[in-house]
Write a structure and sequence with these properties.
- By secondary structure, the chain is mostly helical.
- The protein has 17 helices and four strands.
- The strands form two sheets. A two-stranded parallel ribbon has the order 1-2. The chain has a two-stranded antiparallel ribbon with strand order 3-4.
- The longest helix has 28 residues.
- The chain is globular and about 65 Å long.
- The protein starts with a helix and ends in a 15-residue tail after the last strand.
Length: about 375
């Protein structure tokens, strides 16, 4: 069989378990027809989410009882997450067919999360997607080895334990991602320095100050507690958003079956766009409420597929690669079991370990 005929065969039917994976171009070709982007849908989704977010923020002012304010604050935090997912898509140039419009909509969508668009674009598109789960390059929830963990000072070991306890996503994202890498990052965290980074940082800072000032003004105008209003109208939504995004990026790439690599050659051979991502399934259409960001394998295979087509793309991949994609039904029991097992990573034995270095997962295949 010629190479052309082999490629055509691979493109036409599912790949049996155990057979060699075809080239990424062939895998992408299965879902490329679903990468059609529509500006009207994109704009409508953004406007809808902004209106709902603004309504919940208004609810923290209108309602006087603390519990109603809290519910509105939490709901506003969830809407920040939805808006950020839209901004994430726009940053990938997968949201609309127009590059300039994507940049505009992306910045608008990322405003409530106080995310500098340009810094996210570099850290996420170039580093995370370019080198997913390659230790030393991809920094998102990158696991330490036992030796690295033991070399840390006591306070930093304690912080790592909190991060990986299952209760730490908000703290992890707030410190390790937003504060260190998004809010005027030092050169150690962002090697290149561009005027765009600074101006986006200034814009985000101005938005944060204006948001807090608006909550103070609203409290004074309605004769309410300033502290309570700032807490419920700014702090609660922002902390909930950090918890939401910290959780999402954790479960996307942390699982006993997910591989990490410290060798670029072995990493490239492991088809990292498939083997390092998780499709997390939720009950009650919760995945749809998060704009299908949990159909994550399809997103890593082809970033050009818009969020409103990811469900179909993920289904196609799972039909064509039976048994290859990590599909996990979500439960809190599974989540905390994963947090218990996935503390550190042993790159020699190719498995997850606890903080004592004891293996907690089966060894991953060797690709070296």
């Amino acid at each position: 069989m010629t190479q052309e005929n082999l490629s055509a065969t691979q493109a036409a039917q599912p790949i049996p378990p155990g057979a060699a994976l075809p080239h990424r171009k062939i895998i992408r070709s299965w879902i490329t027809p679903l990468a059609e982007r529509r500006a009207a849908i994109a704009v409508a989704l953004l406007v809808l989410d902004w209106v709902i977010f603004a309504t919940f923020i208004a609810g923290t002012v209108v309602f006087t009882s603390w519990w109603a304010k809290l519910l509105c604050g939490v709901a506003a935090g969830f809407m920040i997450g939805r808006l950020f997912i839209i901004g994430h898509d726009a940053c990938h140039q997968s949201y609309t067919p127009h590059r300039g419009l994507n940049k505009l909509l992306g910045r608008i969508a990322m405003i409530p999360s106080l995310t500098p668009y340009s810094l996210w674009e570099v850290g996420h598109n170039v580093v995370h997607h370019g080198y997913t789960n390659l230790k030393g390059v991809d920094f998102v929830w990158a696991p330490l080895t036992k030796e690295e963990f033991e070399a840390l000072p006591r306070w930093r070991q304690w912080l790592e334990r909190v991060y990986r306890s299952g209760w730490g996503p908000a703290l992890y994202y707030l410190i390790e991602m937003w504060w260190l890498r998004m809010f005027f990052p030092r050169k150690a965290y962002m090697g290149a320095r561009r005027p765009e980074f600074i101006w986006d940082g200034v814009f985000v800072l101005a938005v944060g100050v204006a948001w807090i000032a608006a909550m103070v003004a609203a409290a004074l105008a309605t004769d309410q507690s300033v502290a309570l209003q700032v807490l419920m109208g700014f702090v609660v939504p922002f902390i909930f958003w950090n918890a939401m995004i910290g959780f999402v990026v954790y479960v996307h790439h942390t699982h006993p079956a997910v591989q990490w690599h410290d060798d670029k050659v072995a990493w490239a051979k492991a088809a990292p766009f498939v083997s390092t991502t998780v499709h997390l399934e939720f009950p009650f259409k919760i995945g749809a409420l998060m704009h299908h960001i949990m159909e994550h394998t399809a997103h890593h295979v082809d970033m050009s597929v818009p969020l409103y087509r990811l469900k179909q793309a993920q289904k196609k991949l799972e039909e064509m690669l039976p048994g290859r994609i990590i599909i996990q039904r979500f439960s809190w029991r599974w989540y905390f079991d994963t947090a218990r097992r996935c503390k550190l990573y042993d790159f020699t034995r190719r498995c997850w370990t606890d903080f004592q270095g004891r293996p907690t997962s089966d060894p991953a295949p060797s690709y070296a």
